[in-house]
Amino acid sequence: MNRIASATHVAPGEAPGLETLLVHGGTTRSGFGETSEALFLNSGFVYDSAEAAEARFKGEAGGFIYSRYANPTVDMFEKRMAMIEGAEAARGTASGMAAVTAALLCQLRAGDHVVASRALFGSCLYVIEDLLPRYGVPCTLVDGTDLAQWKAAVRPETKVFFLETPTNPTLEVLDLQAIADIAHDAGARLVVDNVFATPLGQRPMHHGADVVVYSATKHIDGQGRCLGGVILASEEFVATELKDFYRHTGPSLSPFNAWVMLKGLETLALRVERQCASAARIADFLSGQPGIVRVIYPGRDDHPQADVVRRQMAFGGPMIAFEVEGGKTGAFKVANALQIIKISNNLGDAKSLVTHPATTTHQRLTPEARAALGITDGMLRLSIGLEDPRDLERDLARGLASL
Ligand SMILES: *Cc1c(COP(=O)(O)O)cnc(C)c1O
After folding, report:
1. Using a 6 Å cutoff on CB, does residue 317 contact ligand 1?
2. I want to staple 402 with a disulfide (CB 3.0 to 4.6 A). Which of 225, 263, 279, 337 is the partner?
3. Distance from the alpha carbon of residue 215 to the mean position of ligand 1, in angstroms
4. What is the pLDDT of residues 198-249, one digit of tens each?
5. Which parts pass through the membrane (predicted)?
6. What is the pTM of this model?
7. Distance from the alpha carbon of residue 193 to the mean position of ligand 1, in angstroms
8. Nearest CA to ligand 1 atom 2
9. Are 175 and 60 in a shared domain?
10. CA angle, residues 16, 214, 89, in degrees to nearest 5
């Protein structure tokens, strides 16, 4: 059985709904006609003849060559992700950071310049601020909500704008279309890390983004099992920038992890809708509690960028940030008193998780840098899971009662 016997059954033109794509998109069946996606746990492939191998290497014949380049299970995951994102092409990666690093490095050369929003996931900040300059690519960090700063940062050699929205951990929402317009006027591409919004909450490509990256480790797996990531872009971007970089530097996604991600995508809509509904309810609950200084939730009318949220997001998302009285001591008391919500720097899990950014994910920053980002010592970040929201509210009330 050395060839794929049947292909995707979601035909273009039928415009299937998102939930249908999440279950069926990109599925390819082997000759055995298996129901669930097959796990092709192999590194290499064999050829019927030396001529066939030559033709495949020359690109004259289709087919798989080596799992660092492509693998049937990874290919299904990539096709499904491209379909739900509305992108032409996708490449699976070993982690979210492999996706971010490959998406940037593949298109940058010494002498280029990057503009990025300052409020970034810690490892993304390392890549932008520490790693790229080592290879002759300086960057300018801006306050992402201030469009004038994006404009002012542009240089003739600016090639890439990079941002996350909502931001981590302060959940600021950046105006994708406005920033994409500034990037394109400057002849630069906009790369968006869309983890916090999830693929259901926001389609950056509909708002001008050229490249979208995910840590699939988060909501796409959604059950705390595997690392993975994905880069979504046009066929042209993959052909001219990403393809060779990806093949020869090896950030590839393992077939096993791709298979877990495929199964995760089947339930993504159910999980994320439930998480967002619970998050919206819990954000409202928290805002009325004693001991709370501030609640930041993109779905609330009091969010500083509520108008941008309405324009570009389908919902407020599964993440909440809140600040408690008493600074670090207060935040630690609350986190330590929680029984259902676990202390973890991860997010997007079925289990609700709480993080104290100032001492964990953003510990590396100076106090001044944290202050500039609005990360106070009393701030906690919540990733809402799939528990009964009433239990989560009781847990948070228990935490706040410890103050
Ligand atoms: C987790 C995360 C990443 C990195 O993903 P990994 O899978 O852990 O490598 C990048 N960006 C954001 C916004 C994240 O939350």
Report:
1. no
2. 337
3. 5
4. 999 999 999 999 999 999 999 999 999 999 999 999 999 999 999 999 999 9
5. none
6. 0.95
7. 9
8. 215
9. yes
10. 55
